[in-house]
Amino acid sequence: MYRDFPIKSHTGAQKAAEAAECADDQGKFWEYHDLIWANGAVDLDSLKGYATQLGLDTATFNDCLDSGKNTSEVEKDYQDGESYGVTATPSFFVNGQLVRGAKPFETFKTVIDAALAAAEGGAGASPTPAAPSGSASPTPAAPSGSASPTPAAPSGSASPTPAVPSGSASPTPAAPSGSASPTPAAPSGSASPTPAVPSGSASPTPAAPSGSASPTPTPSSGSSGG
């Protein structure tokens, strides 16, 4: 990535940077850049002449340059450069490391090799470790046959809420056949809470047997009435 940093003390540097951006609008940035460096002249006529040499649309190029279309873009690049610590050109950044000045190839190779080694060294570490197969997971899973976080009662053992095995006492006892229930049921032949009159016995409100006196006597056949 190339960014502009026109030195303020260099007359014509700002306009030359803007002219290169105008050439970039027509896809000829690097060709225009090389012409500036090869010729050195950055006056307005020379800048427009370079566009002609490259076969650019000169009307579009001249309008771009004269209108100051790219002035704010070049100024922003300059301000960003200052914030990154750039004070002169050329300046280079390799993975954020500033290299000032026209350095020999060996200098750049050393910086680039160090950046590659750092990148390769960090590639092995996983930000979030993955548990290998068979190891404990962050939330343990109970293996088959082992106790789970919420225990399950094995067959025949007591469960958290006991289950009554066949023939054993339940939490609410059920009366076995022949035993007393919470509300007793009278077995056959025994007295019930509300007595039932067996056949032939006296009822709570006596019923006159055939031939006996009733509570309200009725005259018998052949006797005198009251």
Feature tags:
disordered C terminus, about 230 residues, two-stranded antiparallel ribbon, mainly alpha
List the helices and strands and how they pair.
Layout: H1 13-24, H2 29-39, H3 44-53, H4 58-67, H5 71-83, E1 91-94, E2 97-100, H6 105-123
Helix pairs in contact: 1-2, 1-3, 1-5
Describe this entry's structure for a reader.
With 226 residues, the chain is mostly helical. Among the domains are: 13-86, no CATH class; 94-122. The chain has six helices and two strands; from the N terminus they run H-H-H-H-H-E-E-H. The chain has helices spanning 13-24, 29-39, 44-53, 58-67, 71-83, 105-123; strands spanning 91-94, 97-100. Strands 1-2 form a two-stranded antiparallel ribbon. A hairpin with a 2-residue loop joins strand 1 and strand 2.
> Radius of gyration over alpha carbons?
55 Å
Mean pLDDT: 71
Largest sheet: 2 strands, antiparallel
Report helical residue fraction: 25-40%
What is the number of helices? 6
Structural class by SSE content: mainly alpha
Task: Give the CA-CA distance, first to last residue.
Answer: 140 Å
H-E order: HHHHHEEH
Q: Ranges with pLDDT <50 over ≥5 residues? A: 125-226
Strand content: under 5%
Approximate shape:
elongated
Strand order of the largest sheet: 1-2
Nutshell version of this structure?
The chain is mainly α and 226 residues long.
